Amino acid sequence: METGMEEIHSSSKEQEKGTPQVFRLWKPIEFTLNWANSDTSILDDIADSWFIQREKLQENSSEYKEFMERLKRRHAIETGVIERMYDLSAGVTETFINEGFRSSLLSHNDTNIEPQALMHFLNDHLEAVNWVFDIIKDDRPFSVSMINQLHQQVTRHQETAEGRDPQGNKTKIKLLKGKFKEWENNPTRPDGTQILYCPPEHVASEMDQLVNIYNHLSATGTHVLILAAWVHHAFTTIHPYQDGNGRVARLLGSLILIRGGLFPLTVLREEAKVKYLEALEKADSGNPQPFVSYLGEIQKRNIQEALNVQEVTPSSFEAVQDALIQRIRAQKQAVLQTQMANLAAGRQKIFTICDTYLQDVEQNLRKKYGTDAGVYLKKCSFEDTGVYQPTSRPRQDFYFGQIIAYAQKHNYYFNRSLPKAWFILGFDFSEDKKYHVGITIHHFGYEDGALAIGVFLEYKGKNDEDISNTVVPLAIPPHVVSAYTNGDGKEANIRRYLEDTLTAVLAQIASEL
Fold first, then answer.
1. Where do the DSSP E strands lie in 139-284?
2. How far, in Å, are 56, 233, 253 from residue 248 at the CA level?
3. Antiparallel, parallel or unpaired: β 22-24 and 194-196
């Protein structure tokens, strides 16, 4: 049933028509230096804030529990869609995610299979995800037996798989649930190229090797993102089952990530070919970085959403009062005072990274534009509470409205009570053609250590207080980092975001001149 994914996989190996080839995707699995040296900073930049917030959410928030249920349901839906087991319209997908799987919610043309079959598949996938959480809760070891049970669960209502007869013709064969394949499952591309996975006679030994390598890497502290990506990729090259390999691969990746305090590995349908499969193909060729980064992108997306889940669900007036009192008392504790000092230092470090980069940009732009445009940089750090002239407003609050609008546009909670910082990169092309590129650093979500770097663009009038000033709409999302995180990767990612952002903003200005 998962031939859709298999036919797309390894598309970069496609040969010219008329010259069919055989491509051996599988080779004995190993953990190489390319995997070990993969950059995980896309997750590391924000992980510390998430792990702090996770403890609070698990303790107090029923809203977080429902958030996790929605993630599970999304995984269950999307894993079948990308395997072409069924189609499901976008509207009913969101309804199912929010309200649960009920055939009564289906309308005509919402799906391409019988509603009863759809419900069976969805519930099998959901039960498999729940079983992964149970495995973690019960601290069950990672083993071949466990993987076989996972396959049996996810294929519970699937009776057949595609195979080939001795003549090489496609045929339906009985699906072996929880048992390794007895027939080859090598897909053939439209050009005739055959992709060869692990032969049936080597599957058992390769699966034992996968478990042994995983257990060694886990015991020696391999980064959870690298570990999940490697297991997923190694498993897909083995392709141990007649069908269901893609579903099990994502569940195994999910198990490793959830055990590390993260979220299920959910590949969205719109990302399946452009991001997921292309990254897997690059891993096939010995370059695992795109696949590691893609899994990190999925986790960062979920973390940013989770950071905007309320810590305390307002179930009653009394409960909210109790939670508020606990928070006030906690703020007086010495441990929290140390944490707040570390937070202040981390905020200022992020400001310094941005400041250093933007000063270089300002100098380079001045040299390039000369007298064609006035270029200047203004700034306000987290520690600066002075007054911005010609107004008497506190400097940190000068761009308060723009930050609120930016947070609303990108759908996250902005904690306006905590310090903010900003930069203005100004361009004066003429008396009536002036632009301000605003870069703001402000708090993101409900965890105090998570910071968003965002951007807005203003068209200025003849002076800063001109009522004709307008904000130019931009669709650039924030870059979210943790103030507690250190490392070169964090600085490199911030500088890359600022470069990409300024490139897009300058292109916008150029299109308006």
1. 160-164, 170-174, 194-196
2. 31, 11, 9
3. parallel
Outline where DSSP puts E strands in 461-511.
Answer: 470-472, 479-482
The residue ranges of DSSP E strands in 145-276, in sequence order, are: 160-164, 170-174, 194-196
**b/e per residue, 108-126, with b = 16+ CB within 10 A?**
eebbeeeeeebeebbebbb
- Eight-state DSSP code of residue 467: T
What is the rounded distance in angstroms from the CA atom of residue 154 to the CA atom of residue 30?
27
Alpha-carbon distance of 388 to 239, in angstroms, equals 63
Instruction: Identify the bridge partners of residue 160 per DSSP, sorted by sequence position.
Output: 174
pLDDT score recorded for residue 368: 85
β-strand partners of 53: none
Within 10 Å of residue 101's Cβ, how many Cβ atoms?
A: 19
Under 8 Å between Cβ of 309 and 64: yes
Q: Which of 46, 513, 506 minimizes the C-alpha distance to 263?
A: 46
CA 328/CA 333 separation, integer angstroms: 9
Report the distance separating Cα 342 and Cα 79, nearest Å. 41
Q: Which ranges in 166-223 belong to alpha helices (H)?
A: 200-219
Say how far apart CA 394 and CA 378 lie, in whole Å. 15
**Angle, nearest 10°, between helix axes 41-60 and 488-512?**
100
Give the Cα separation of 446 and 462 in Å (integer): 39
DSSP 432: T
Nearest by Cα to 214 from 272, 146, 268: 146
DSSP state of 275: I
pLDDT reported for residue 334: 53
**pLDDT (0 to 100) of residue 387:** 46
| Domains of the chain, start order | 62-306 (1.10.3290.10), 334-512 (no CATH)
- Could you give the C-alpha distances from 233 to 252, 288, 296, 410, in angstroms and in order? 10, 9, 15, 33
Q: Which pLDDT belongs to residue 19?
A: 53
**Could you tell me the mean pLDDT of each successive run of 10 residues in the chain, 513 residues long?**
50 46 83 97 96 87 93 98 96 97 93 96 97 96 97 95 69 91 79 83 97 97 98 96 96 98 97 94 95 98 95 64 65 62 91 96 88 87 64 67 92 92 90 88 94 91 56 86 89 96 90 77
**Which residue(s) pair with 442 in the sheet?**
452
pLDDT reported for residue 228:
98
pTM equals 0.87
Backbone phi, psi, residue 163, to 5°: -140, -170
The residues pairing with 452 across neighbouring beta strands, listed in sequence order, are 442, 480
The one-letter amino acid code at 419 reads P
| List of residues 6+ apart from 278 with CB closer than 8 A | 12, 290
What does DSSP assign to residue 394?
A: B
